[in-house]
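Journal club prep — side note

Before the paper discussion, L.F. wants everyone to see what a predicted structure for a comparable chain looks like in token form. Sequence:
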Amino acid sequence: MSKRRIMLRIFVQCCLLVFCILRHSDAGDSVQLQELSKRLSFLENSEIEHRNVNTELKTTIDQLQATVENWKTKANELESRLHHKDKRFVAAPEAPVAFHAVMDASVDHLGHNQNIVFETVLLNLGNAYHNAHGVFQAPQSGVYVFSGTIMSWIDPKPEIQAELVKNGQVLARIFGHGDSGRHDQGGVTVTTQLVTGDEVWIRELTPNDDAVYGGRFSSFTGFLLYDM
């Protein structure tokens, strides 16, 4: 029952009470007057109970709304964390960086610390690998993965030692030693952090005046794992 209807009912009862008092003022009507007073008290108590119920309902609704807002905040925080976590493992989707180059032609007479050039470029997203010198130059800061493989020549130059370097500093070495007229292939994979402009390449270490077998058995590959 709505508050307006309760008030209207009380008003009607009061009018009836006044009407009965005016019409029956003698002592014989006192019983009826008491009955009307009881009804009036009942209606007043009913109104008080409805007010209390409305107050409790409002309190409950406020608590539920606060709980919903709290869960919304937690959901937004979780979504933000998941987005950040996913972003760490996406390597700049607007500008990916990856390359793969191979050596088609065998190279002879390599000197100590001479760059080994992988002249045939099969992939060069971001144009960061320069096949004229065999050097990769980081276009943006991040964590990168590089892999290099070298196939040795046969007699009289069966052995090759090479280095994968960053700005001239050795990250890892590659070794191959052919025997009994057979080639040998060595390889290495590294993960390293670069800043924009850092350079990575593979160079010959020893012996001097060495040779590397081509035929796409020797290769150089790299990609951006995630930016920073």
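L.F.'s comment for the group: The chain is about 35% helix and 35% strand. Keep this in mind when we get to the figures.
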